[in-house]
Amino acid sequence: MAKMPVGQILRQRAEEDPRRPMITFEDRTVTWAAFDRQTNRLARLYSELGVGLDDMVTIALPNGIEFYEAAFAAWKLGAIPQPVSARLPHAELKAIIDLADPALVVGGPDDMGYDRAHLQSGFGVSPDVSDEALPDKTARHWKAPTSGGSTGRPKLIVAGDSAEFDPDATLMEMRSGQTHLVTGPLYHNAPFSLSMLGLMFGQHIVVMKRFDALKTLELIEKYQVNWLNLVPTMMLRIWRLDPDARNRFDLSSIEALWHMAAPCPVWLKEEWINWIGPEKIWELYGGTEAQGTTTIRGDEWLKHKGSVGKPLDVFVMKILNEDGEEMPVGEVGEIFMAPKAGAGTTYHYVGAEAKATSDGLESLGDLGWFDEDGYLYIADRRTDMILSGGANIYPAEVESVLDSHPHMRSSAVIGLPDEDLGNRVHAIVEATDPLTMEALLSYVEERLVRYKVPRSVEFVTEPLRDDAGKVRRSALRQDRLKPT
Questions:
Q1: How many domains does the chain have?
Q2: Where in 329-400 does DSSP place strands (E)?
Q3: 290 with 326, same domain?
């Protein structure tokens, strides 16, 4: 089938099966027909507030049905959803709004003093507003998520594709009729994009308010979930549950479990493959910019342990050294990539400029290598690499060993100045049970060469990673370099 505007897809599915569940959040489920009618009303309200074709609509709402209503109402007007965290500080939200220049802000703090149209979270559109279908319109770009990047300054990553989709398409093992569990925050690109695509393809979406390891398993069993996306931090927290609690749930409904957003330790992935089955575990590597992607299924991964897969056919990927020369097989360099359709076809920035080579290849800042079969392996981010005593140390490798300790919840490894070594390896750890530095380092020394073992350990109680499982090592390092 040919591509359709979002509004047409929603209307068609509502007509075909009006009472079929579309979105479930906590104890509420909305059908396709009810959602279609509600977003027609909401779109008319947005239009009255000045939202039009190719305008941005900043959505600062927590996870829930209201978030999806805001996005679909924007699409029905040919506008571009621009998701942000509902918990952003005033200054950070203002910087994004100034950059995006949206016609409307939905959600966010009520005391901000907005200089444009604003609707509070929980705003109810009058039932007197017409719920009849609107003329179909298509936004030039279907989303515009944000990224702080390495500079800390916000930028928008505006998708190259327009807001029209083929409802009969298949992508990432998605298919109509599946139930899709959303575990991450919708302001992050993966939960936003994957759940929205799931709806375009006819999935029933079950949305968590926030990730909880035990609740995830409960929901999989309760709703017979077929498709879900996790990040390694979530996988680790589920695996750390008491085995009796973890194994009492029926997870046989799962058809595809995708993980992404951060490196997954080999030991943890092996545990999940043994638990769920290799043919059900999928991994994706790539950025919000979508200028390069690899994928790999669990059974293929077992033959290339640690790999994130081969680049998809529509992308070019190369490993380059600092002089821009291509590295031989097995040697680490910076990963550069580009769509074969040409640089800039998958996204453009607002608030930043892409850094590209002369032939249009771009980097996400990651280091890695290819094996002789063309499979990609990730070493770490260039900016996070620690040079200690003349040796390159990749924090992700050390964190993988730390996180394998049975009493570990999460860890982050950074380099701190050292008079002798230049930088020393410093581990910041969040433990689940009392743990001494001596016991932890003894555990690590059995698994890593001496120069990679942390020279210092800091125990913390606050989470090290955000709701999407990401850690900002540069910020952790800066905090520890500040004068006391």
A1: 2
A2: 333-339, 347-350, 362-370, 376-381, 386-388, 391-393
A3: yes
